[in-house]
């Protein structure tokens, strides 16, 4: 069990609670998705070589067509694994507010999940700091001064 009594809450940062850079898994997911697309393009080229129907009646030609089919099957398995990885990591980061819930299936969109977890941690950290400092006068003056009333009116109070 962690002893949180000595933890420096004033200097705490979000990365201490939810470390990581969401752009890293998103970038890798994009690379995996691009690799999947490239594999499918190469599979189509291989298939077009063997589907011409002309000149493949010899034993060597028939063996070539068989090897192309076997290679396509292996490439399809590789492409499926790359696609699963891309889906799990996510290829972009969904920008959601910290109050949102995860809106995608479990085991997918790691980059977006990490980004949302960091936003939730940042919001919770800010809430705890505001609570520790006493929300009352400080927050009220900040709202009045910065958001609602022009400076000439706040001087009257």
Task: Please state roughly what percent of the residues sit in beta strands, choosing from under 5%, 5-15%, 15-25%, 25-35%, 35-45% or over 45%.
Answer: under 5%
Q: What share of residues is helical?
A: 55-70%
**Mean of pLDDT:** 79
Largest sheet: none
List low-pLDDT spans. Answer: 143-157
Number of helices: 5
Distance between the termini: 49 Å
Question: What's the count of strands?
Answer: 0
Overall structural class, as computed from helix and strand content, comes to mainly alpha
Query: Could you give the order of the helices and strands?
Result: HHHHH
The gyration radius over C-alpha positions equals: 28 Å
- The 3D shape can be described as rod-shaped
Can you describe this structure?
By secondary structure, the protein is an all-alpha fold. It is 64% helix and 0% strand. The C terminus is likely disordered.
Keywords:
157 residues, mainly alpha, 5 helices, 64% helix, disordered C terminus
Topology summary:
Blueprint: H1 23-50, H2 59-89, H3 110-133, H4 135-148, H5 151-154
